[in-house]
């Protein structure tokens, strides 16, 4: 009889332990799911904040390029590039009224550490300033998407 009571206690204890384990496991699953949802939201916000930073930088570069043109009658050539906004270019077209302090203190990098790109369609014509996104390659979606501003 005593053996039977001990076996019932052990079986009851095992049942309680199993239920407790299942409850803890279920709780852990819920925590993992919530963490995933929070991380996804933070990633979306991070991507949006990075895109906003790129747009702000591009607008600043675009304003500097327009000021450069007002002073020098032309935009920097492709060979001169965006560096012409920071360092007086020595090659043609000559920057006749280049500001001694430059047009930007330095060239910013995009949020992913890549250089901003400058491209003219034709000499002295319309141009585009852009970021290649997180992957640093043309095209892409989400965080890898290119972001650009065009002028002209």
What's the gist of this structure?
This protein has 152 residues and is mainly alpha-helical.
**Major sheet: arrangement of strands:** 1-2-3
Helix content: 40-55%
What number of domains?
1
The secondary-structure element order is: HEEE
CATH topology: Glycoprotein, Type 4 Pilin
Secondary-structure arrangement, i.e. CATH architecture: 2-Layer Sandwich
How would you sum up the major sheet?
3 strands, antiparallel
Can you walk me through this structure?
With 152 residues, the chain is mainly alpha-helical. The protein has a single domain, classed as Glycoprotein, Type 4 Pilin, CATH 3.30.700.10. It is 47% helix and 9% strand. It contains 1 helix and 3 strands. The protein has one helix spanning 2-72; strands spanning 117-120, 127-131, 147-151. A 3-stranded antiparallel beta sheet has the order 1-2-3, with helices on one face. A hairpin with a 6-residue loop joins strand 1 (117-120) and strand 2. The radius of gyration is 30 Å and the shape is rod-shaped. The N and C termini lie far apart (97 Å). The model has no long low-confidence stretch (mean pLDDT 83).
Give the topology.
Elements: H1 2-72, E1 117-120, E2 127-131, E3 147-151
Antiparallel strand pairs: 1-2, 2-3
């Amino acid at each position: 009889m005593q053996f039977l009571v001990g076996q019932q206690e052990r079986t009851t204890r095992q049942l309680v332990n199993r239920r407790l384990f299942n409850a803890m496991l279920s709780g852990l699953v819920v925590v993992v799911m919530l963490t995933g949802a929070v991380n996804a939201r933070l990633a979306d916000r991070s991507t949006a904040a990075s895109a906003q930073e790129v747009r702000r930088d591009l607008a600043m570069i675009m304003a500097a390029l327009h000021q450069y043109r007002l002073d020098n009658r032309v935009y920097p050539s492709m060979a001169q590039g965006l560096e012409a906004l920071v360092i007086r270019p020595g090659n043609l077209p000559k920057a006749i009224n280049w500001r001694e302090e430059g047009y930007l203190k330095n060239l910013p990098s995009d949020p992913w550490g890549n250089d901003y790109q400058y491209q003219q369609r034709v000499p002295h014509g319309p141009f585009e300033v852009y970021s290649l996104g997180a992957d640093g390659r043309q095209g892409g979606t989400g965080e890898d998407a290119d972001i650009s501003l065009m002028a002209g």
